[in-house]
Amino acid sequence: MTTAPELDTETAARPAGPLVLAITGFGVLSGAGIGARALADAVGSADAVTADVSEMFEEPLPRPDAHALVDFTVRDHLGRKGTSFFDRSTALSMVACKEALEDTDLEINDDNRARIGITLGTTAGSAKSTSDYSKDTFVQDRPYLVNPLLFPNAVMNCAAGQAGIWYGLQGANATIAGGPLAMLNVLRYSRNLIGCGYADALLTGSVEEFSPQSAWAVHYAQSIEGGDLPPGEGAAVFVVENAVAVRAAGRRPDAEVLAVEVGFFDRPGPDRAFTEGLATCLVRALERAGVTADQVTTVATAANGMTRLDEAEEAAVTAVLGSEVPRLRVKESTGEAFSASGAFQLAALLARHRAEPARDGEISVITTRSAEGAAGAAVIRGWSRDGGDNG
Amino acid sequence: MRRVVITGLGPVSSIGIGADAYGTALRQGVSGVSPIACFDSSGFPYYMAGEVHDFRPENMVRRLSVDEWGRTSLFAASAARLAVADAGMDEDELAASRAGSSMGTTGGESQVLERLTGDSLTAGLDGLDARLVRQVSSARLSQAVNRELRLTGDAVTLSTACSASNYALGYAYDLIRTGEADYMIAGGADSVGRWSHAGFYRLGALTEKACSPFDKNRSGIITGEGGAAMFLESLESAQARGAHIHAEVLGYGLNCDAKHMVAPNRDSIAECMRLAHRNAGVKASEVDYICAHGTGTPANDFVEASAVVDVFGDNPPPISSTKSMLGHTMGAASGLAAIASVLGIAGSFLPPTINFNTPDPDMPKIDPVPNQARTADVRIAQVNGFAFGGNNAIVMLGRPS
Questions:
Q1: A174 vs B106: CB contact, 8 Å cut-off?
Q2: Could you tell me the CATH superfamily of domain A255-382?
């Protein structure tokens, strides 16, 4: 095992030119289905398809439809052994990791598993698992009659920890609670781990499960902010590595994460302070990526029908990139899935690259925002796998 | 790469709020454990916890409206306030700088979620308070810090359970040394709740009255709560503004057992210590003090002590557990441990392991600094943090040179 080598020290010490992450494979499970093709088809279609979720849970739901994987069961993907206590959030993460590992040419063995880790984004873990635990303390004959085997599920790092065990990854294992910003937070965190030499590769992604708790959380958020998108769920996990190292090994990345910038500002509102904050993140991201506004071909936004937030985000994007760059409104196809939404924005761009070789080398931007005032932007360049040098 | 120093401390704990009170309590070996007050503990066989009864967020935060934020976020923001004041940092200058926060947690705002769960049993899921629902996101812990201090940089909440503060401290250290940020607030926060009290009890990991780490008769944890925040900046920045430097962050190590969700792993923990030493550029023989994860469960303390001997040999440095005084403050634990270590470095003392009665013959080489704080020259301290999921994180701190 090695530690922070000199080369990484130099790379990370240059604030103007941070490490570029290569994505060498990914897996996605969204309401559109399992896999990149299903997501690419969904975001390319004008019709949003939801599922009937009215039979999924005993508890009442605010609406009968959601972008949910109604028939998803973990045993279909990982077998019965050892999976029966996984909650939905853990199960979705585990299967997204499996898909990502099958999609990448990174080989994991005993020589490198200590240098490969997991970084996962969440909002509050499995709110259902934690809430059910609380509920048992209220309704059981004795307040302590909770199931000890389910206790780890109630803690937010369950999915990343279980994935570490299942796939034998002994490198840094981190969970970041970022809500709408989770994926961008995780990308920045992962870039630091690789750039500073703590890890060579990471399974990096974000997850949100559909549950009565999450469905009602969307409902209550919409009661304040407006909008009527159905709730969504799923996970996307990306295999990220040092782009220079990937190319030096003669491998071809599916995408490069050229820049990720985040900030925290006043809540989105009429005073435009938030819009200026997001615009600052966007300008900084373009600068650090070394690209100009006219090179950007697509903006994957977080638009979800919440007027105050959508307008603030759109104003920032327009101010920096203009109004002509096509917007990809991913949530129209995947629903409002909180921390998974950022992962779906990235996965949708990659899925489209995979499906459309004509887009090879295109530069895209991801923007996001939260009602609290968190903002972020990322710059991505992607390719298909149909040949070319991906450079 | 820039060197990174800690110039401000903000503990909000059951044994003291603020660096002076906390430091005094550590020297005196005070216990912060008391009967549970924040929820009705009737029906629970065990009813003790390390609650911060004196926490009055309305007297500590200035910008946050306390009814808009959960208890854990208020712990985080209040601790951050204390850290900035201790650092003597001008607030307006800080707000105009490249500054952010990195906070760790286990349960986040699970106390809010627990309240909503209780409400839903009477009012139904359709009868909840929308303003309370929006408080559930754990992202709000770091956002509360940024909002309170008007920080416009990263607001990151590391939710890696009981080692989360060490993750958060490590990340903040990296952001400053690589030039991504100029000032960072790093630490963690958590609140006592029914669900975790019940969970640890049923896991067989809870003890009845007093937490006695490394004792032969130790029988588990006491759940605790609090907030920890440290103010980090580059060495040049601290020198330029004439700040008092409490300690230097030397580096950290992270790894994952990848074996079991709740059982700690000796070899993996030993490896994490070696990683931390290598990344910090220190030799095991240079470490003067280990602030233990030291939960007080039979398994953790034996595995931790054994790993220490594996790495340090037959004469390891003294190793004590602040959890004997605080209980297990979960996501705040390694942050409060780091602050204790910084105070030990700055004040030349070792915090004690209280409630220690009987040495454990299975760990004869361990010096747990039993019951009384000890005067000692602490040049380099090691802060251990382990967690569910095998999430190990160890931070190395040093006396400023």
A1: no
A2: Thiolase/Chalcone synthase (3.40.47.10)
